[in-house]
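Minutes, project check-in

Agenda point 3 was the complex the collaborators sent over. CS summarized: two entities, 577 residues total, and the question is how they sit relative to each other. Sequences were read into the notes so everyone works from the same version.
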Amino acid sequence: MICTAFKPCSGSFEQVGTPAVAPAVSVRHVSKTFLRSRQSVRALRDVSLEIAPGEFFGLLGPNGAGKTTLISCMAGLCRQDAGDIRILGHDTRQDYRQARRALGVVPQELVFDPFFSVREILRLQSGYFGIQKNDAWIDELLAELDLTDKADHSMRNLSGGMKRRVLVAQALVHRPPVIILDEPTAGVDVALRQGLWQFIRRLNNDGHTIILTTHYLEEAEALCGRLALMRSGEICALEKTESLIRQFAKHRLTVRLSEGNVLPAALQTLAAPVPDAPRSWEWTLDALADIETVLATLRESGCTLEDMRISPPDLETAFLSFMGQQS
Amino acid sequence: MTEFLTLLRKELLRFWKVGFQTVCAPVLTALLYLMIFSQVLENHVQVHGIRYTAFLIPGLVMMSVLQNAFANSSSSLIQSKITGNLVFVLLTPISNFQFFTAYLLAATIRGAVVGAGVLLATSWIGGLTMAEPLWIVLFTLLGGMLMGSLGLIAGMWAEKFDQLAAFQNFLILPLTMLSGVFYSVQSLPEFWQGVSRANPVFYLIDGFRYGFFAVSDASPWLSLAVASTFTLTVGLLSFVLLMRGYKLRT
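CS then shared the predicted structure for the full assembly.
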């Protein structure tokens, strides 16, 4: 078993116990069926995955894919029917207290206790994890999340974005080595989102394992080293982010023709019209050299360009292409 | 231990922060009952040779203990469930036993605080003695724990506030009102005496009242045995449901 302790206020942690080789999260053959309206719904089907300590891992999939159920099973909010889950080597059922100590979860829903102020909530949350004096770390968290001036405000009086940041602070208050963020930036404005990611990235650099679910795929692409794509309760891809993009996305060329120009017939078969953009066409390229072929054909046909853009392969395209293939 | 103490503190703060509603209001309700019933019956009724108003006070105190202990655990749990903030407790290493005892103790303390409030507010009325204080403490604890456990069950079971209100109005209220709070069961016809004696809350009220006057409808030892058995049974049931995560962990 691994025992993990944190250096006070440093934001990092050190292993005090035995092997440092146990995965941050190990999910083995986990299945879960819910009974809804007298019908059984298989939310997870024999899911297995392993996340190494220090990874920034993304869990992606359409709504209803099973991401939140899997996270709930990891956190002990949901009990799997079969299989086992370990957090830093601690079984979430047999050794649930150690497993939960190692885990911090930012829930998807914007939930809060209306009876307490931000600081009271963070003190209570510290106490739930057995930490008596935690004000130095609470102050650091409040400062990092730009909540210092709201510390004594009631949760009821905070905006949605601020409540979201308090949820992040609650998840981090016991300095968990493994942090699960279930759509943490939903409803958070751009500036705060950037600040939040800087902070989370720093935690990751300090050695924390981060598991992220998000519908903002550009976030996942920028942050996650490895991704699991889920669909209908199954993991259908488990790859490094760049490998997934390489396999399922290509460069795209977008052009807008000048007024009065018509796309040559030779290019029409492979070109896709850009929705809501007149005279604009897009090509998915097998190789960058194909750009010259397209441009040469346009030149030969006497077409002139008003605008041109080359988009590199991205996660969003890869995700849509992969999910399209799956369905 | 810190985990347990924090959860207990949170549960105590939760009702204390709205003390006007959770402590003062039930004390006022009990005083209104006392004022009305004593005005109407003081000169007409004596029970076991005790003035009616003095007889009524321990019943009202115990009724307040029971109703508020139930309200504390049940409303805290259902509010946390419905607003979703229960997740902050469920995600922590707090054990089921710590969860159970923190909720139970907080419910008992709120019941005792309201009961003490009623007692304090009525202390100016003469004729109230405390013949056996240990019995008073014992039945306060048993009543608080029984209703705290029942509140936990109701809080786990109910998914909407109206379900909890139904539990409160159709079970808790009749059990407490028809238990000898306002009268001695010996004044009832035989059939209704039998019905009252089948109500476990009767033994809590009767045993509690024994602590004040050293007289009661049933033997205090019988009351202690019945109240203890029910408290243990309901407590065990709520603990087992909690361990199974009944309607808390899917």
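Noted in discussion: Confidence is low (pLDDT under 50) at residues 1-19 of chain A.
Follow-up: revisit at the next meeting once the mutant set is ready.
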